[in-house]
Specification:
Elements lengths: L2 H8 L3 E5 L3 H13 L3 E5 L2 H10 L4 E4 L7 H12 L4 E6 L4 H10 L3 E4 L4 H14 L1 H48 L4 H31 L8 E4 H12 L6 E5 L5 E4 L1 H18 L5 E8 L8 E7 L6 H4 L7 E2 L5 E2 L1 H11 L3 E6 L4 E7 L4
Helix pairs in contact: 1-6, 2-6, 3-4, 7-8, 8-10, 8-12, 9-10, 10-12
Length: 367
C-alpha cells in the first residue's frame, strides 16, 4: 500500500492496546505510533474500560488472558461504543473454543500470537480504512465538544467582566442621580439609564449564575422580607414611558422568607417579559399572597399582563434552557426563574387567563 494511502487511513485513528504484558504493550504502541496511529495502552481490563470511557478508541487490540477476562472487556467495549469500535483479539490461545467465545462476545477479528508489527499495522490500517466514517464522526464530535467547552468558558469570562463593568456604571450613575442638581429632563434621562443598567445587569447576572445553579453551587440566602417592598421596587425599576399601567397588589403586612436578590431578579425577568408583550394601554400586575395558610410564610407571587397568551405548543417547554420563543429568539430567562424557584424548594408555573398570561412563583415557608 502506498505511504499516502496508509497515512490517510490511519490519520486521527485511536488504538487501545490491552495486554497484561507491559513489554508487549510498549512494543505494539511504538510500532503503531510509527505508522501514524494514536495509541493508548492498558495492562488490565478494568483500566482499559476506564480509559475507553474517557477516550473512545476506534480500534481495540485485546488479549484474552488477563486478570480481568478479555471477553468481558470485549463485551463492555461493544456496550459502550457499539460498531464505532473495531475489536481485534490478539492471543496465544488459538483454538476453536477461544475463537467462538471471542466472536460471540463481539470480536471483529482474531489474530494468534506471535505476529509481526508490520502485519498488525496492515490489519489495523485495513480496519480503520473500512470504518473511516466512524473515525471521522468521533473526531468531529470531540472537536465540537472542545469548541463548546471553550465557548462556555469564554462566555463565562466575558459575562463576569461585563457584570463587573455594569455594576460600576450603575453605582456611579446612581451616585450622580442622587447628588447632582439637574433639571427635570436630565433627571428623567439619568433615571431611565439607571433602570436600563439594572435590567442589563440582571440579565448578565442570570447568565453567570445559571451554570452555578446547575452545579448546585448557589444556595439562597434566605431572610425575612416585606413582600410589597420587593414588588414595588421591581415595578419602579421597570416603569417606563410605554402606555401601560403598573399595579402592585399586595398587603402591606405580608412577609416571607426568601433570597431577596434572587427573587427580585426572577420578578425583573417576568415583568420585563410582560412589558414586551403587554398590549398598548394595558396593565401589568404583580401580586403577593399567602400560599396555603397552614404552611406559615409560604408565598405565591404572580406576574400577569393583558395581551396575547403564550401559544399552546410552546407551553410545555417554557422553562427549559435556551427554549425558542414565539418570535424565534432563544433565551434563558424563564429557565433561570425555574432554577431559582427550585433552589428555594418551590416552583414556577404558567397559566393563561381570559385577559392574558400569568406566571406564578411559589415559595414554601422556611423556619
Amino acid at each position: 500500500m502506498a505511504a499516502d494511502a496508509v497515512e490517510s487511513a490511519t490519520l486521527g485513528a485511536r488504538v487501545l492496546v490491552v495486554d497484561d504484558d507491559a513489554k508487549i504493550c510498549r512494543q505494539m504502541a511504538a510500532g503503531l505510533a510509527h505508522a501514524g496511529f494514536q495509541v493508548v495502552t492498558a495492562h488490565d481490563g478494568d483500566a482499559a474500560l476506564a480509559q475507553a470511557e474517557v477516550t473512545p478508541p476506534d480500534v481495540a487490540v485485546v488479549d484474552l488472558g488477563m486478570p480481568t477476562s478479555g471477553l468481558e472487556v470485549i463485551r463492555k467495549l461493544k456496550e459502550l461504543h457499539g460498531q464505532a469500535v473495531h475489536i481485534i483479539v490478539l492471543t496465544g490461545s488459538d483454538d476453536e473454543r477461544s475463537r467462538a467465545e471471542a466472536f460471540d462476545a463481539g470480536t471483529d477479528d482474531f489474530i494468534a500470537k506471535p505476529i509481526s508489527i508490520a502485519e498488525l499495522r496492515r490489519r489495523l490500517t485495513a480496519a480503520t480504512r473500512s470504518r473511516r466514517a466512524y473515525v471521522e464522526a468521533r473526531i468531529g464530535k470531540e472537536d465540537a465538544d472542545r469548541r463548546i467547552t471553550y465557548g462556555a468558558e469564554a462566555s463565562a469570562l466575558l459575562a463576569h467582566d461585563l457584570n463587573n463593568g455594569l455594576a460600576v456604571a450603575l453605582s456611579n450613575l446612581s451616585y450622580l442621580a442622587e447628588t447632582l442638581s439637574v433639571d427635570t429632563d436630565q433627571r428623567d434621562a439619568l433615571a431611565a439609564t439607571v433602570r436600563s443598567l439594572r435590567r442589563m445587569s440582571g440579565l448578565v447576572a442570570n447568565f453567570v449564575d445559571v451554570a452555578r445553579f446547575e452545579d448546585a453551587a448557589v444556595k439562597p440566602l434566605v431572610t425575612r422580607s416585606r413582600v410589597r417592598e420587593v414588588l414595588a421596587s421591581v415595578m419602579d425599576t421597570n416603569a417606563s414611558s410605554i402606555n401601560v399601567t403598573f399595579v402592585v397588589d399586595c398587603e402591606d403586612t405580608l412577609a416571607g422568607r426568601f433570597d431577596v436578590a434572587l427573587v427580585e431578579r426572577v420578578l425583573h425577568n417576568l415583568v420585563g417579559n410582560a412589558a414586551r408583550y403587554c398590549n398598548p394601554g394595558g396593565q401589568i400586575r404583580v401580586a403577593g399572597r399567602r400560599w396555603h395558610e397552614a404552611e406559615g410564610d409560604s408565598l405565591e407571587l404572580e406576574v400577569d399582563n393583558t395581551g396575547p397568551t403564550i401559544p399552546e405548543k410552546l407551553r410545555g417547554t417554557l422553562f427549559q434552557k435556551y427554549v425558542r420563543g414565539s418570535g424565534g429568539k432563544r433565551g434563558m430567562g424563564l429557565y433561570f426563574c425555574r432554577l431559582v424557584a427550585e433552589a428555594h424548594g418551590g416552583s414556577i408555573d404558567y397559566e393563561p387567563t381570559p385577559t392574558g398570561p400569568r406566571f406564578i412563583l411559589r415559595l414554601p415557608g422556611r423556619e
